[in-house]
Each structure stands twice: as structure tokens, then as C-alpha cells.
């Protein structure tokens, strides 16, 4: 999927599920960048791995969202008619829910989101929140640059 279409079909509907104070262009850039980094805006399931959804959540990531932002996360599941026990499975195909969970995972970091254009700081923020097994900074630059230009042109 193109980054522009991803922004329109996955991120914007997901952000409408959240309180307004969680919605910003900085959040859009991070969400678009991370999905680009993790799945290239294409893969809903990790090859030979447990991760699901465009943001490649693992069960521990879903559990972290449910623990660290419980009130909002449980409310999202209830609104989406998804039982808590099905949350991990649901994010593979429920893109708005997956986006909202991704935003909540970012929200659980006490530091503010990096300023748009701060690619290195954004990469460190992503690594701190997602805890990828093999972080690949070479893919981050193009994904982040694309995210910045896509959000700027929305």
C-alpha cells in the first residue's frame, strides 16, 4: 500500500478512536514511520514470527498497551466489540484498532514525541517503545523521510 493510502486508510481512522490530545502530526509521522520500518506498509504478519499487523505487534506489545494505558485500551476493545482475549489476533486485520494500539504504545513513553524532522531522535524513540530484536537504522531513514513528506502533504 502506498504511504499516502496507508495514512488515509489506517492511521486517520485509528486516530479518530483516541482522545484528541493524542492526535498530532508528530504522532502521524511516528506511526507512518514505524509501520514503514516494520512492514513496509505491506505485511500483516511477520514471516516465521509472532508479530501481527502493519506495526508488527508481538503479544508482549499488546499486553504492554493493555497494562500501561488500560482505561483507553480496554475502552477501544469494547467499542470495537473485540474481547480482550482476541486483542492480539484482531490487530492483524483491524487497522484502526492496530493504529490506536500503536499510538497508545507511543503514549506510554513519558517523553514527548520527537519533533518532526528529527530522524535520529525518532529512531531512538521507536527503538525504546518497540524494542525490536534487530533494529535496522538503514531502513529507518527512507521510511521516516517518506512519512514526513506524506504527512506534510496531507
Question: What would your notes on this structure say?
Answer:
The protein has one domain (3-40, 48-152). Helix 1 (3-15) crosses helix 2 and helix 2 crosses helix 8. The protein has eight helices and no strands. It has helices spanning 3-15, 25-39, 59-68, 70-79, 87-90, 95-107, 119-130, 137-152. The mean pLDDT is 96. The chain starts with a helix and ends with a helix. It is an all-alpha fold.
Topology (SSEs and partners):
Elements: H1 3-15, H2 25-39, H3 59-68, H4 70-79, H5 87-90, H6 95-107, H7 119-130, H8 137-152
Which characteristics define this entry?
154 residues; mainly alpha; 8 helices; 0% strand
In helices, the fraction of residues equals 55-70%
Number of helices: 8
End-to-end separation: 16 Å
Number of discrete domains: 1
**Mean pLDDT score:** 96
Question: Can you give me a brief rundown of this structure?
Answer:
This protein has 154 residues and is mainly α. Helices cover 60% and strands 0% of the residues.
Amino acid at each position: 500500500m502506498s504511504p499516502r493510502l496507508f495514512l488515509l486508510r489506517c492511521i486517520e481512522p485509528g486516530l479518530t478512536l483516541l482522545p484528541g490530545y493524542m492526535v498530532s502530526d508528530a504522532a502521524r509521522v511516528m506511526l507512518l514511520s514505524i509501520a514503514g520500518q516494520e512492514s513496509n506498509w505491506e505485511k500483516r504478519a511477520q514471516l516465521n514470527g509472532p508479530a501481527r499487523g502493519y506495526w508488527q505487534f508481538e503479544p508482549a506489545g499488546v499486553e504492554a498497551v493493555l497494562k500501561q494505558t488500560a482505561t483507553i485500551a480496554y475502552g477501544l476493545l469494547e467499542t470495537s466489540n473485540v474481547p480482550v482475549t482476541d486483542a492480539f489476533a484482531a490487530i492483524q486485520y483491524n487497522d484502526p484498532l492496530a493504529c490506536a494500539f500503536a499510538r497508545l504504545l507511543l503514549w506510554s513513553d513519558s517523553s514527548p514525541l520527537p519533533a518532526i524532522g528529527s530522524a535520529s531522535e525518532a529512531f531512538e524513540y521507536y527503538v525504546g517503545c518497540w524494542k525490536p530484536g534487530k533494529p535496522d537504522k538503514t531502513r529507518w531513514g527512507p521510511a521516516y523521510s517518506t512519512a514526513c513528506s506524506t504527512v506534510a502533504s496531507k
